[in-house]
Amino acid sequence: MKIELARVAPADIEARSMEIIRSELKTPLDPENEAVILRAIHTTADFDYAETLTFSPGAVRKGVEALLHGASVVTDTTMALSGINKRVLHKLGGEAYNFIADPEVAQAAKDRGVTRATVSMEHAAALGKHLIYAIGNAPTALVRLYELWREGQLPEPALIIGVPVGFVNVVEAKELICTMDCPYIVARGRKGGSNLAAAIVNALLYTASKNERE
Amino acid sequence: MKIELARVAPADIEARSMEIIRSELKTPLDPENEAVILRAIHTTADFDYAETLTFSPGAVRKGVEALLHGASVVTDTTMALSGINKRVLHKLGGEAYNFIADPEVAQAAKDRGVTRATVSMEHAAALGKHLIYAIGNAPTALVRLYELWREGQLPEPALIIGVPVGFVNVVEAKELICTMDCPYIVARGRKGGSNLAAAIVNALLYTASKNERE
């Protein structure tokens, strides 16, 4: 078998990929959510996200506006942190945080018999208002965000990106987020991941960056 | 709708997830590759990997043996680097490398009109023999590894993990790796990712670590 490589310049690979994705989508995308859905599929090659990504009203616009106002992003894994385009985030005035490797978080999690992700969300909430929570791994992080919100301890989140992956309490934790009266983007079902969480943040960052230039 | 969370202790979540995966698999897995396939599905909630993951003869055993001899791992993204369990890798005597953010790599890529991933593989190959290449993003990294190998410039790789995701030359680049007479684990098709590359390295690390203790 002869394996033929397409000749595409490095700078054109992303645009070509997006063309292919658009051409294979079975139904047109809501223009408001298009940038996020396209980037989710681009990152995963999984067209399921065209169906499973669920947006609260105006979630994308609200996320983009928050970033334009310098909102910071908190992740549940170092991998999601690593995938976020910090250059663009810093340019807009935001920071990226992750508390999972904090020794205090590890000790508190051990003492209380909860996950480090649970404790790290409490640290995040203490940072204050208008944060973007990007959760790609731990359903327990989403459950704790939901509980904090119910207890009045989650001050005005700008956006919750709820896209953990897995088999235990993942579907349920995402459904809890969908009951919240705050902006969210959730990948319903079992699928998701740290790569997806980062990709969604980046889609919002690139839209914000483009809006700023225009 | 009442959303009910299962009560599972943090330490038991992974074992419970693996039970669920095993119970839903349609065909039994080859015991030799089972640890890698289970962890791939655990990381992605995508059962396609039971079909698409392709192993050269003895690839898992060879990867595990290399890690037990202190092999180092090179990734194509900081995200894959971030997802690898460095604690276990270091304990076995290995290091994790990534050259994508090296300013020299960026400059050379620009000058030559190639991707940074291409140049970063040349830096990696210069490290010497018995490396594990964990490629979850850039098909151009796989293409360059293939070319270097054909030119006799890729000194005895311990294992190539070829699992990039995407739409342009991804399928083809993986097929090139499957023609190589060296140990490989490839996710055929478009799907893959940095998270998957890290998960496969971790599956090998945990197997190596277990073998060492026994």
Please summarize what this structure is.
The structure is a homodimer of 214-residue chains. Chain A is an alpha/beta fold and 214 residues long.
Per DSSP E runs of 2 or more residues, the count of β-strands of chain A stands at 6
Residue runs with pLDDT of under 50 for 5 or more positions of chain A: none
Please give the alpha-carbon distance between the first and last residues of chain A. Answer: 48 Å
Which pair of protein chains has the largest interface, and what are the residue counts?
A: A-B, 48 and 48 residues
How many distinct helices of chain A? 11
Shape of chain A: globular
Widest sheet of chain A: strand order? Answer: 1-6-5-4-2-3
Main beta-sheet annotation of chain A = 6 strands, mixed
Strand content of chain A: 5-15%
Helical/strand content category of chain A: alpha/beta
- What is the succession of H and E elements of chain A? HHHEHEHHEHHEHEHEH
Q: Please, could you describe this protein's structure?
A:
2 copies of one chain form a homodimer. Chain A is an alpha/beta fold and 214 residues long. Chain A is built from 11 helices and 6 strands. Chain A has a 6-stranded mixed beta sheet, with helices on both faces. In chain A, helix 7 crosses helix 8. Chains A and B meet through helix 1, helix 2, helix 5, helix 10 and helix 11 of A and helix 1, helix 2, helix 5, helix 10 and helix 11 of B. Chains A, B: This is Precorrin-8X methylmutase. Chains A, B: Pfam families: CbiC.
Question: Top keywords for this entry?
Answer:
homodimer; six-stranded mixed β-sheet; alpha/beta; 214 residues; 10% strand
